[in-house]
TrEMBL record:
Protein name per Swiss-Prot or TrEMBL: Peptidase A1 domain-containing protein
SUPFAM superfamilies reported in the protein's UniProt record: Acid proteases
InterPro entries on file: PEPTIDASE_A1, Peptidase_aspartic_dom_sf
Region (Disordered): 175-202
Species of origin: Gymnopilus dilepis
Organism placement in taxonomy: Eukaryota, Fungi, Dikarya, Basidiomycota, Agaricomycotina
Residues of the Peptidase A1 domain: 1-125
């Protein structure tokens, strides 16, 4: 399988089957397909553990990267729901572009990545391009962040609606629109959210694994031993480069200050010899001027 790591994609694009397989395993999720597209509605405080596996290395995804918060106005009331952040696409769309799935920022936020485009010199050495990935997510910490971050965010939104009830209300609105209804009638009691509704009071992790087989060496990631071996070295080199850059900047500032101080001192000392010591420069008198053919000025002409 070929995977595109797309830094220009804020989420991810998956084949329809894989898209549905992932979100259908999240407890409390519901699929909507209608006039507003196709998406899954999931509990906003889900702590499902989704992992992608490349060549045997697992890369977990933060639960908050699985959904986005959206608001809906139905029957004159506003509701909040969490919609699938990943998107689906037909298999033909992927085959045309030469890859099977596209992982954007929703995946890349959870890894440390390095991209090497290789060298292809006419009269020099060549090297193949490669990508290296290092997982960075602490799932235990991520569960805590779901509790704090997501719930604090939801406190500023309208009440959250149960995913199944939202899908039912949206489907009913679509049916009435298809029937030519000019206004949306109030939803039936079967779909009306209860005043004390709580979508997901108990945070129970669910494990979902997505395995992408390795290719012929031109895969999207290196195996785990390579990442484990060179990951710390890469970080150390980046830190060393930053330190060298900082030293060069400091030296440049000191050199500039030194030159400025020297220029000010030279301006106060006047005429200097080759060693920097002051030199006396005599002023020509009247005799010297007459010797050079100049006549003395008759100042009496300016008198009374």
């Amino acid at each position: 399988a070929q995977t595109l790591l797309d830094t220009g994609n804020p989420t991810a694009e998956l084949p329809v089957k894989l898209f549905n397989d992932i979100y259908s395993r999240i407890p409390g999720s519901a699929l909507y397909t209608g006039s507003q597209g196709s998406f899954w509605v999931i509990p906003c405080d889900t702590v499902t553990n989704l992992e992608f596996s490349f060549a045997g290395v697992r890369y977990p995804i933060h639960p908050l990267d699985l959904s986005t918060i959206e608001t809906f106005t139905l029957a004159g009331k506003e509701y909040t729901a969490c919609i699938s952040a990943f998107q689906s696409a037909e298999d033909e769309d992927f085959s045309t572009n030469g890859f099977d799935i596209a992982l954007g920022d929703s995946f890349l936020r959870n890894v440390y990545s390095t991209f090497n485009f290789g060298d292809d010199l006419v009269n020099g050495p060549t090297s193949d391009s490669f990508i290296q990935l290092l997982p960075t997510l602490d799932h235990a910490k991520a569960i805590t962040e779901v509790t704090t971050v997501r719930r604090q965010t939801l406190a500023t939104f309208p009440p959250e609606i149960d995913p199944a009830k939202l899908v039912g209300m949206l489907s009913q609105a679509d049916s009435e629109a298809d029937a030519g209804a000019t206004t949306t009638s109030p939803a039936s009691d079967a779909y009306a959210p209860s005043p004390n509704h709580n979508t997901h009071t108990e945070l129970t992790p669910t494990q979902i694994d997505v395995t992408v087989p390795g290719g012929d060496g031109q895969t999207a990631s290196q195996d785990g031993t390579v990442v484990d071996k060179y990951g710390p070295i890469i970080v150390a080199l980046l830190a060393a480069n930053l330190l060298v850059l900082l030293v060069l900047v400091i030296l440049g500032i000191l050199s500039y200050m030194r030159r400025g101080s020297s220029s000010k001192k030279n301006g106060r000392r006047g005429v200097l010899d080759s060693k920097g010591a002051p030199v006396y420069a005599p002023v020509k008198g009247a005799d010297a001027e007459e010797a050079q053919g100049f006549s003395q000025v008759n100042f009496e002409r300016y008198g009374p």
